[in-house]
Amino acid sequence: MENGHSFIDYYRILQVNPECNARTLEVAYRYLAKIYHPDHPETANVERFKAVIEAYRLLKNSNKRVNYNVQYARNTGFLFESSDGSRSEHMTALTDANIHDQLLMYLYRKRRECARDPGAGLFDILRNLNCPEENFEFHTWYLKKKGFIETNDDGTLAITVVGVDHVIGMSQNSVERRLRITQSESAEAESWSMA
Question: In terms of C-beta density within 10 A (0-12 exposed, 13-18 middle, 19 or more buried), how is residue 74 classed?
Answer without folding.
Answer: buried
